[in-house]
From TrEMBL:
InterPro entries to which the protein is assigned, alphabetical: Delta_60_rpt, Quinoprotein_ADH-like_sf
Pfam families (alphabetical): DUF5122 (PF17164)
Record organism: Streptosporangium subroseum
Keyword Signal: yes
Keyword Transport among UniProt keywords: no
Protein name per Swiss-Prot or TrEMBL: Delta-60 repeat domain-containing protein
Domain of life from the UniProt record: Bacteria
Signal peptide start-end: 1-21
Keywords: Signal
Length: 421
């Protein structure tokens, strides 16, 4: 069991700045420990879809109804969202909003608040279609934030400064038509009329943004679309957010133009920028095929490469889905229900060179090969959420075994350790 003292962990946590703390913004100098901390609370049912960190408070969202403090036998009711103290692991007693349906996305807000997105329609019996901002002190909605997202679910959120980017499969924001992507005022929730980039021509039945990641000058989006503002961008594109109005960047790739299994017309999932924004990583589902393609893979792309871009490297699972990714500079962490990495010749089997990495793994950001880090986890559906912070890496999933210990659906791997090489 992990034996770091509370004082050492607290000292690391004091370095965390207030405001948004999301994967892709925090640089690690080493790979995290394979031994999770013992303080994280347990989610006793369902699945964790999203994690955010506001100051010293961790917010967990998903589809669940019961939680419990580590070391406790008392079950607490929490409806699809709860919060806990990062240092102690104790669940916040005053943050108990009732959300009628699952949470899919979270983003930390200023002033002890959190933005919450999902498929819910009500919070505490008041109408709240898909997006809200809540106070962490008592779970109440922040006055003055009145977003109007209609026609679908919010699946991803990214914020910086006065802007909140919203992705999903909705069709309208406020009184304006917005297909799957919108930019809102972070204080009022009003839709930004100048940001009207439109994903289109889905491979499946409905246009959808699955994931977003935001750096200082680019917004990366992936999902079920093949165009952005009419420009060919099969399942993945970059948007230049330094200009007004924002525009689709000239960067493009055909890496995800190919097909995977018919069950997965669109197969991109998690997406994350490196801390310096120079590259980003994408993970996919898709199913095993007869030839190595981009199904069930992790790939690195250079952000500022011009024109048609090929992946810098691709790492294959050999037939198992990946859903979540976090790039910290020291590693590209990947999670899903995979059995292997380094497995381009596997077809639901371990091919030559494959290494076992059940449910969670880490890839060298330069070589694209699996690192030695191998804590293991019970595979289940898979990891759906990572969040890197100055103290380590938070993990959210649907299973109860992480690093050979009981950590129900939430866990954290701490820093520092000796870097892998």
């Amino acid at each position: 069991m992990f034996a770091r003292t509370a004082s050492v962990l607290a000292a690391a946590i004091l370095l965390i700045p207030p405001g948004i703390a999301a994967a892709g913004t925090i640089k690690h100098s080493s790979v995290v420990s394979a031994n999770p901390v013992n303080t994280t609370p347990h989610v006793l049912d369902g699945i964790v879809n999203a994690i955010a960190l506001a100051g010293n408070t961790v917010i967990i969202g998903g589809s669940f109804g019961k939680v419990r403090d580590a070391g406790s036998t008392t079950t607490l009711e929490r409806d699809n969202i709860f919060a806990y103290d990062l240092t102690t692991g104790r669940i916040l007693p005053g943050f108990t909003p009732y959300l009628d349906r699952p949470v899919q996305a979270l983003a930390a807000g200023a002033g002890g608040t959190v933005y919450v997105g999902g498929s819910f329609t009500a919070i505490d019996d008041a109408q709240a279609p898909g997006l809200a901002r809540l106070r962490l002190s008592d779970g109440s909605r922040v006055p003055g934030f009145g977003p109007q997202i209609y026609g679908g679910t919010v699946t991803s959120l990214a914020g910086r400064g006065g802007h909140l980017y919203v992705g999903g499969d909705f069709t309208r924001a406020g009184h304006l038509s917005r297909t799957a992507l919108a930019r809102l005022d972070a204080v009022t929730g009003a839709v930004d009329p100048s940001f009207a980039i439109k994903p289109g021509s889905p491979r499946g039945s409905r246009t959808k943004v699955y994931a977003m990641s935001l750096t200082t000058d680019r917004l990366a989006v992936d999902g079920d679309f093949t165009t952005l503002d009419g420009l060919s961008r099969p399942q993945l594109g970059l948007i230049d957010v330094t200009v007004s109005p924002a525009k689709v960047d000239g960067w493009r790739t055909d890496a995800y133009a190919g097909k995977c299994k018919d069950d997965f017309p669109s197969y991109v999932r998690g997406l994350d920028f490196a801390p310096d924004g120079s590259y980003f990583a994408v993970v996919t589902t898709g199913g095993p095929l007869a030839a190595p393609k981009m199904c069930d893979t992790t790939a690195r792309f250079e952000t500022h490469a011009g024109g048609e871009v090929d992946p810098t490297w691709v790492n294959h699972t050999g037939g198992d889905s990946l859903y979540a990714v976090a790039a910290t500079g020291a590693a590209v962490y990947v999670g899903g229900h995979q059995r292997w990495l380094n497995n381009p010749r596997g077809r639901d089997s371990a091919g030559p060179g494959a290494v076992e990495r059940p449910g969670i793994g880490a890839i060298h950001p330069r070589t694209g090969k699996a690192l030695a880090w191998n804590p293991t986890r019970e595979r289940g559906i898979g990891v759906k959420a990572f969040l890197a912070h100055r103290g380590g890496l938070l993990v959210g999933s649907d299973t109860t075994q992480l690093g050979h210990e009981y950590h129900a659906r939430v866990g954290m791997f701490p820093l520092p350790i000796t870097p892998d090489s």
